[in-house]
Specification:
The protein contains 3 helices and no strands. It has one domain (4-155). It has helices at residues 4-51, 55-98, 104-155. With 158 residues, it is an all-alpha fold.
C-alpha cells in the first residue's frame, strides 16, 4: 500500500502531463482555427475565380485547399491522440488514488500511464508532420501565385 506522501509524489508526474497536454491542445486549437479560416477564404476565392472564368486560378486554389485539408487531418489526429493521452493520465490519477485501497490498481495505473504518454507522443509526431508540411505549403503557394500572375500578364487579364 502507498502512504499519503508516496501517493502525492505519484500524482506529480500525471499532473504535469495534464498541464503540458492542455498547453499542447491549446496550440493545436489555434492552428486548426487558422486553417479553418484560411479554408473559408480559399473556398470563397475559388468560387469567385470560377465565376470569373479564371481556370488556372481555380486549379491553384483547389491545390491549396487540398493541402490545407491534408494538414487539418494531421492536426485532427494530433488532437485525438493528445486528448486520448490526457484522458489516460486522468484515469491514471484515479487509479493511483484507488491504489491506496486496492494494490492491483497501481499496476494498471503504471501500464495506463505508459500507454497515455505513448499516445501523447503519437500526437506530437502528427504535429511535427503538419508543421513540416505547412512550411512547404507556403513555398508552393508563392510559386503558384507567381504562375497565376505570369498567366494574367501574358493573357492580358487584370
Amino acid at each position: 500500500m502507498l502512504t499519503k506522501l508516496e501517493l502525492f509524489q505519484a500524482f506529480v508526474a500525471p499532473a504535469i502531463f495534464i498541464s503540458a497536454s492542455g498547453l499542447f491542445v491549446l496550440t493545436l486549437n489555434a492552428r486548426l482555427m487558422a486553417m479553418v479560416s484560411r479554408l473559408r477564404v480559399f473556398h470563397k476565392e475559388k468560387h469567385l475565380a470560377a465565376q470569373a472564368g479564371k481556370k488556372q486560378e481555380v486549379l491553384t486554389l483547389q491545390s491549396q485547399i487540398e493541402s490545407i485539408e491534408l494538414r487539418s487531418g494531421k492536426i485532427k489526429n494530433a488532437f485525438f491522440y493528445s486528448l486520448l493521452g490526457t484522458i489516460g493520465v486522468m484515469i491514471t490519477c484515479l487509479l493511483l488514488g484507488l491504489g491506496l485501497y486496492v494494490y492491483e490498481a497501481l499496476t494498471i495505473a503504471v501500464i495506463l500511464f505508459v500507454i497515455s504518454v505513448l499516445s501523447m507522443l503519437i500526437g506530437m509526431v502528427f504535429f511535427i508532420s503538419e508543421v513540416s508540411i505547412a512550411l512547404t505549403s507556403v513555398k508552393e503557394e508563392e510559386t503558384l501565385y507567381n504562375l497565376i500572375d505570369l498567366i494574367d500578364l501574358t493573357s492580358g487579364e487584370q
